[in-house]
């Protein structure tokens, strides 16, 4: 088990890994209440963030606008701060979307050196000094 799984946005190939994680967690926690549970493939998983340990999805947070809709963490990765890291990333999603609309892009994501959340380094290409100056009316 990696003590610091990578967290990134959902990618097209993640759905099967998310299905395995969510199904296993539901069976473990709610199996007695939901014996015929079926994973909802048509949920808005494209809006999720995933945590990966050696290429395997071990956590996922599904966001919807300004709130966290679902948060799932694999058994071997609980009680280590991963759920909190996923929540912080999801909560900062609106801020990141704002910066991306302004032309910024993510350079790297890394754990904070003291606190248990991820930091994100952003970069933006500034206008070239050779670009013609805008005229003001």
From TrEMBL:
PROSITE patterns: GNAT. Residues 5-127 form the N-acetyltransferase domain. This is GNAT family N-acetyltransferase.
């Amino acid at each position: 088990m990696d003590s610091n799984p990578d967290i990134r946005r959902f990618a097209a190939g993640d759905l099967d890994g998310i299905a395995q994680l969510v199904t296993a967690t539901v069976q473990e926690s709610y199996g007695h209440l939901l014996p015929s549970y079926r994973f909802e493939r048509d949920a808005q998983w494209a809006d999720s963030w995933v945590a990966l340990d050696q290429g395997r999805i071990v956590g996922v947070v599904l966001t919807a606008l300004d709130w966290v809709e679902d948060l799932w963490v694999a058994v071997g990765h609980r009680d280590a701060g991963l759920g909190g890291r996923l929540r912080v990333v999801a909560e900062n999603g609106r801020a990141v979307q704002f910066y991306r609309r302004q032309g910024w892009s993510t350079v790297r994501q890394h754990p904070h050196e003291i606190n248990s959340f991820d930091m994100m380094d952003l970069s933006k290409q500034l206008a070239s000094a050779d670009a013609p100056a805008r005229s003001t009316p």
